[in-house]
Amino acid sequence: MTTTLSTEQTVGGLVADRPERSKIFEQLGIDYCCGGKKPLAQACAAKGLDVGDVLKKLVESDSSAPATGIDWVKASLTDLADHIEATHHAYLKDALPRITALIGKVVNAHGAKNPKLQDLSDVFSNFRSELECHMMKEERILFPLCRQLDGSAEPQAFHCGSIQNPIRVMVAEHDDAGEALAAMRSLTDDFVPPPGACNTYRAMLHALGELERDMHQHVHKENSILFPKAEAVESALGSAAR
Asked: Do 149 and 227 touch, CB atoms closer than 8 A?
């Protein structure tokens, strides 16, 4: 099947249609999670990339890698929320304490010679604290509202008013997390180990790179799929009532 791509499609939408495209955007440094609402042309211009070349890479990717896995665009709100909790939240609950310990060891061993490591520790500590609070709000407030919308035949009365209100907060917090991830990449020279780096130093950088990749997928599924779907369901139920 031939896929027609447009420079006006959003990068988030492109990845929602074919998750494999995220690999191309990762390689090119194009933000498809927090910046997922940008049209491809705008995202390429911001990175100084030729949009025609990027389109070619996407088409080649589509041809060589057939669509695999679950199509989350077609999944129910409940299934998607369950997946995010079981996959991405579970990963973070394991990874965040582990990375904290790794950073602590590296700072103790190398911090005196590399002041940026203490900055990395500070950024990560704040990132972890905010993200753990963020996940708790999603699991206790927003995701239950998404599940409540599933299968509803009439408008739902939420304590927060419209579901758009907690979504707006979550999106803003995603932006903050994205800035922290960018800072961590910068402070570690793109997660490249310095000459003579010990195994713990290398393990820390590998873990941070893995964290960034998972967060990109995580935020993409929320910003570009779950949240718009929840808002659309709530809107449709409201329209039906009128």
From this structure: no
Residues 6+ apart with CB under 8 A from 206: 191
What is d(CA 113, CA 115) in angstroms, rounded to the nearest whole number?
6
Asked if residue 173 lies in contact with residue 82, where contact means CB atoms within 8 angstroms, the answer is no
Q: What is the CA radius of gyration of the chain?
A: 20
**What per-residue string of b and e applies to 202-213 under the rule 16 or more CB within 10 Å gives b?**
ebbbebbbebbe
**Residue 3's pLDDT is what?**
56
Residues 139-167 have pLDDT tens digits of 999 999 999 999 888 888 888 889 999 99
Q: Is 96 exposed, middle or buried (0-12, 13-18, 19+ CB in 10 A)?
A: middle
Amino acid identity at 147? R
The full DSSP string for the chain is: -PPP--TTSBHHHHHHH-GGGHHHHHHHT---STTTTSBHHHHHHHHT--HHHHHHHHHHHHHHS---S--TTSS-HHHHHHHIIIIIIHHHHHHHHHHHHHHHHHHHHHTTT-THHHHHHHHHHHHHHHHHHHHHHIIIIIHHHHHHHTT-SS----TTSSTHHHHHHHHHHHHHHHHHHHHHHHHTTTTPPPTT--HHHHHHHHHHHHHHHHHHHHHHIIIIIIHHHHHHHHHHHHHHH-
Give the pLDDT confidence of 38-96 residue by residue, as tens digits.
999 999 999 999 999 999 999 888 887 655 567 888 999 999 999 999 999 999 999 99
